[in-house]
Design brief:
The structure holds 2 protein chains of 2 kinds. Chain A is α/β, with parallel strands linked by helices. Chain A has helices at about 10-20, 55-60, 70-75, 100-105, 110-120, 165-170, 180-185, 200-215, 285-295, 305-330, 345-350; strands at about 40, 45, 65-70, 90-95, 125-135, 155-160, 195-200, 225-230, 265-270, 280, 300-305, 340. Chain A has a domain at about 85-315. Chain A has 11 helices and 12 strands. Chain A has an 8-stranded mixed beta sheet with strand order 6-5-7-8-9-10-4-11. Chain A is globular and about 55 Å long. In chain B, the strands form 6 sheets. Chain B has a 6-stranded parallel beta sheet, with helices on both faces. The longest helix of chain B is centred in the N-terminal third of the chain and has 18 residues, at about 145-165. Classes of the chains: A alpha/beta, B alpha/beta.
């Protein structure tokens, strides 16, 4: 048995000190999946054992450790980060699935499920990483490591790879229980050649983006990720299924991103009288191509977004940025210390006025 | 090799010290023996039990030491010679009975206690010198040095015990207990024994039986009078003797195995004509005249004994009473730092003490040889204390660790005495945070579990083995029910007293002599006391962890017992084949790319797992793996494969 007596602060300790203990952890799951030392449990990241990695993925890809936002924007869109409303947008409109089966099971318009099934059908991706329910069994190897809260029906949420539309349909309705999506990504074998699509909340998309900027050494090739669908997040999500649904993670007060600005396509509720529609923001070329295919296939029904709706999204999104900056600088009492956020002075100035 | 019961007086057998004690008991004609296992004394009872049926006497593993001694005393009260052997902890356990037994006497049977001390605490939670109890409670004390003497002194102890009507203590230390030596056998008595509890009456005790210790101060005086007869007997004993020149420059006073170390040391230093050795086998009460005579030989005296300065103190007390006209004596020993105050002694230590006093120089080995030894020592790979391959306790501690961590309130485990004591080191993932004596884990939890009014919210898990449960935990469990202490009591039921050599206990359905015995059902017992009882398999990590987490979150008051049930792997392996054939799938094990940082060998650290340096991957050590299958559930890659055999 090797016993390490070094005083070096290893990554999970760093993560705990700088993120978890500071109340910044949004519980995105980017650290825990695939790591035997970290487990997601009842809205907390728990370090089960002593890890001796000095440069671990858990710290590197945490959306709440230092992130050069400009570098991420440059990598994904080829432009610097603007700090405006809803971020880079090629097109914004309302959409919904034309598939009655999807619509029936969906929270809003079923756009995410429609897009993923088109992507699967067209071979853009071989598998979509989504959250599904299993009858109490967690993936092999994680069996003893992740004690998960069981749903009232005895099922447990797991991140899984859906390769067919039928598998996808089984996961609809669990759309916001995305806590295990990044775990599932971390568990994909390194040598896998499958093209992947992934759906995530803004914090999870941020974690993914950091992986794209500086790809992990010992994980699946990030180039295999062909599609990132982002979900709008207004901080009102429960941490684990079964928890109080009104629970707001205080850490989300430090999040600037409402519309998952680094996704290929971001999807939110159509709100108010369009609440069985989705607001869709197309951000990248890959995103635009998929939308075109979905439209051509007749899988997606669209209509222009009313001006007042678009203004609302822009304002809400900007407000979230301002609120985050205000909370962060209130915490640090230093305009120059933005915790994890690497933003230009100009943008900070604009947001803090 | 003939058995311990061979009836061949005059023949010589090679016996382990503990076997020699057992043989002495046989030659003393015992009819009853009772013990609780504990290193270094365990083999005395197991040796006796192996011949008990054949020789028609009673042998039992009792629930604990005090029950054992009380049972043995009962036999003695009824005229049956009885012996009880125990380690130093046992002496503490029996002390309350023992002090009262001094008041009443032991009857006609004869009662001998063998106290096994463990210097350096090699197999103990403590180092302790049991001899003090003799001074404290007025009992005669004998200290044999060799297997032959062990046998002879046990026999003699029975005579003394009957003659003085006192319990006689014979003390061994680990080296004597576990070293083999030639023993010339004596006769085995063939007299029929008849047990009868007779009414006895004496002047000091106005009751129908003398075996009632009461508020009669005179009983203590009576005991002192009995003990006062001992020195005269000891003065004449041939076990006390002097070897050396008539007037040595240095006189060594020693007892037990230290006599052998002292003799060897003097020979090594070639100081036989300058240093003499007085071996004192009857170390309490002192044969004062004899000691005084020996002290008059020299003006320098060195005491060599294990563990405390027991003889040293007694002799110096005696010397303090000498008239001023006597020549001054310089005393050396533990008080002066020449002999260490703790730990086992050995010849080298005694040599350096003598050399220091005598101004002699001594080099044990030439420099080249010493260097060679040091080089060779470096080649021995370091090993830390760990559970055996396939040990159920590894699963228990893994689940305890995960459950306490997941709960997140910095909960703790309080432990007890047994294999699972190793929970305080890496083998048990440093989970055990309090460990003292038998039963103390749950005892301490009774305190921690009643601190709510002071804001105490840390979950507490008390742990005890199955044998420990029967030994010392039941009153504490009753207390937790009665006083509503909040903790989880984990009974690690591996169906054996594994630490001391798989002796049976009340839960296993077998007695000391191998016969079928009734089972005391621990589940039913705990339930009947009002505790909620759950049973887990320590190899089902997921269920065990979930159960513990759930119970920790359970705010409802009341005792919670979780029985972690899986038989000791060493016991299982003797009975049946391994359940699984294990291998590591090299395609799945990502080696150092995994990021797990060799979790399997670094943290989980079952001895059956190893690291293949060339391949850079984990590997099963087929020589050590017992095929238990537990590690399959801890590999993050699912690379450790179990195939049912």
């Amino acid at each position: 048995m090797e016993v390490t007596a070094s005083k070096e602060l290893f990554t999970p300790q760093k993560l705990r000190k700088e993120v978890i203990d500071e109340g910044l952890c949004p519980f995105c799951g980017g650290c825990a999946g695939g790591c035997p030392y970290l487990a997601q449990y009842k809205g907390r990241i728990v370090q089960l054992d002593h890890c001796t990695l000095s440069e671990g993925d858990c710290y590197e890809y945490c959306p709440r450790t230092y992130t050069d936002i400009d570098a991420v924007s440059q990598k994904i869109f080829g432009v610097p980060f603007s700090g405006d409303g809803i971020g880079v947008a090629r097109e914004v409109f309302l959409a919904r699935s034309t598939d009655p089966e999807i619509r029936e099971k969906s929270q809003d318009g079923g756009t995410v499920s429609a897009l993923l099934s088109v992507a699967l059908a067209k071979g853009i991706i071989d598998a979509a990483i989504v959250t599904g329910m299993s009858d109490g069994r967690t993936p092999v190897g994680l069996l003893a490591r992740n004690v998960v809260t069981k749903m009232s029906d005895g099922k447990t949420p797991v991140g899984l790879l859906a390769r067919k539309k039928e598998e996808l349909l089984q996961c609809i309705g669990a759309g916001y229980e995305t806590v295990r999506v990044l775990s599932a990504l971390n568990s994909v074998p390194k040598k896998s050649k499958e093209k992947l699509g992934i759906i995530g909340l803004p914090c999870q998309v941020a974690s993914l983006s950091k992986r794209k900027v500086s790809p992990p050494q010992n994980r699946v090739n990030m180039d295999n990720i062909k599609l990132v669908l982002g979900l709008f997040c207004a901080n009102k999500r429960w941490l684990e299924p079964g928890e109080d649904r009104q629970y707001i993670n205080k850490a989300c007060g430090y999040c600037w991103d409402l519309t998952a600005e680094f996704a290929d396509i971001s999807v939110g509720s159509g709100r108010a009288k369009f609440k069985d529609w989705n607001t869709v923001i197309v951000r990248t070329k890959a995103g635009a191509e998929l939308i075109d295919m979905a439209k051509a296939k007749g899988a997606l029904e669209t209509q222009p977004i009313p001006d007042e709706s678009l203004d609302f999204e822009k304002k809400a999104s900007l407000d979230k940025k301002k609120r985050a900056l205000k909370n962060i600088t209130a915490k640090t009492a230093d305009r120059k210390n933005l915790l994890y956020l690497g933003l230009s002075e100009a943008i900070v100035g604009k947001l803090l006025t | 090799m003939p058995g311990i019961d061979v009836d061949a007086p005059g023949s010589v057998q090679l016996l382990m010290g503990n076997e020699a004690f057992a043989r002495g008991a046989l030659e003393a004609g015992i009819g009853f023996t009772a013990s609780y296992p504990g290193t270094p004394a365990s083999e005395i009872l197991s040796t006796l039990a192996s011949v008990a049926k054949k020789m028609n006497f009673h042998a039992e593993w009792s629930t604990n030491e005090i029950v054992a001694l009380e049972a043995a005393a009962g036999a003695s009260f009824a005229g049956i010679p009885a012996i009880s052997s125990m380690k130093q902890n046992g002496i503490n356990v029996v002390s309350d009975f023992l002090v009262n037994l001094g008041m009443t006497g032991i009857g006609k049977g004869g009662l001998v206690v063998v106290a096994g001390d463990d210097p350096s605490a090699i197999s103990s939670s403590n180092e302790q010198d049991s001899r003090w109890i003799c001074k404290w409670m007025d009992m005669p004390l004998l200290e044999p040095s060799t297997a032959q003497e062990a046998k002879e002194m046990v026999k003699w102890a029975f005579d003394l015990s009957r003659e003085l009507d006192i319990v006689c203590i014979v003390r061994e230390t680990t080296r004597l207990a576990h070293t083999r030596g030639n023993v010339k056998l004596g006769e085995l008595p063939k007299t029929e024994k008849k047990a009868y509890f007779a009414d006895t009456w004496n002047m000091c005790n106005p009751t129908k039986s003398k075996f009632t210790a009461g508020s009669f101060g005179i009983l203590h005086y009576q005991l002192q009078q009995k003990l006062a007869k001992a020195p005269a007997i000891f003065e004449a004993s041939l076990f006390n003797y002097y070897v050396g020149p008539d007037k040595p420059e240095l006189l060594i006073i020693t007892s037990g195995v230290c006599q052998l170390f002292s003799r060897e040391a003097v020979e090594e230093l070639k100081l036989q004509d300058r240093v003499g050795i007085f071996r004192l086998a009857t170390s309490w009460p002192l044969p004062e005249k004899l000691v005084e005579k020996q002290l008059s030989r020299a003006q320098k005296v060195l005491f060599v004994e294990e563990i405390n300065p027991f003889i040293e103190g007694s002799v110096m007390e005696l010397a303090a009473s000498f008239p001023a006209s006597k020549p001054h004596i310089d005393f050396y020993g533990k008080r002066t730092g020449h002999i260490s105050l703790f730990g086992e002694q050995n010849t080298d230590l005694v040599i350096s003490a003598i050399a220091k006093i005598m101004g002699a120089t001594y080099q044990a080995r030439d420099a080249e040889y010493q260097k060679g030894i040091e080089e060779a020592a470096k080649m021995v790979p370091p090993r830390s204390i760990n559970f055996c391959a396939g040990c159920p306790h590894r699963g228990t501690y893994w689940a305890v660790k995960d459950a306490l961590t997941l709960d997140g309130r910095n909960g703790l485990a309080t432990g007890d005495i047994g294999c699972y004591s190793m929970g305080f080191v890496a083998g048990g993932f440093f989970q055990e945070r309090a460990m003292h004596c038998m039963g103390a884990g749950i005892g301490v939890a009774n305190g921690l579990g009643n601190l709510k009014q002071f804001g105490f919210t840390q979950p507490v898990i008390a742990m005890a083995g199955d044998s420990t449960f029967y030994h010392a935990c039941i009153p504490a469990l009753i207390n937790s029910v009665y006083n509503e202490a909040n903790f989880i009591f984990l009974i690690l039921d591996n169906s054996a007293t594994a630490m001391t050599g798989f002796q049976p206990h009340p839960g296993v359905g077998k007695g000391a002599t191998g016969e079928q015995a009734p089972v005391v059902d621990m589940d039913a017992l705990c339930r009947s006391l009002g505790a909620k009882v759950e049973v887990c398999d320590p190899f089902d990590l997921k269920n065990t962890t979930e159960t513990l987490v759930r119970l920790m979150a359970d705010e409802e008051p009341g005792a919670k017992v979780v029985i972690m049930r899986r038989v000791c792997e060493l016991v299982r392996a003797r009975r049946e084949k391994a359940p699984y054939k294990m291998h590591v799938d090299p395609d799945k094990c990502a080696g150092d790319d995994c990021g797990c940082k060799r979790l399997c060998i670094r943290l989980f650290a079952c001895p059956g797992l190893m690291w293949d340096k060339e391949a850079g991957k984990a590997k099963i050590d087929e020589a050590l793996c017992t095929g238990c299958g537990l590690c399959t559930d801890i590999c993050p890659q699912g690379a450790i494969i179990k195939e049912a055999v």
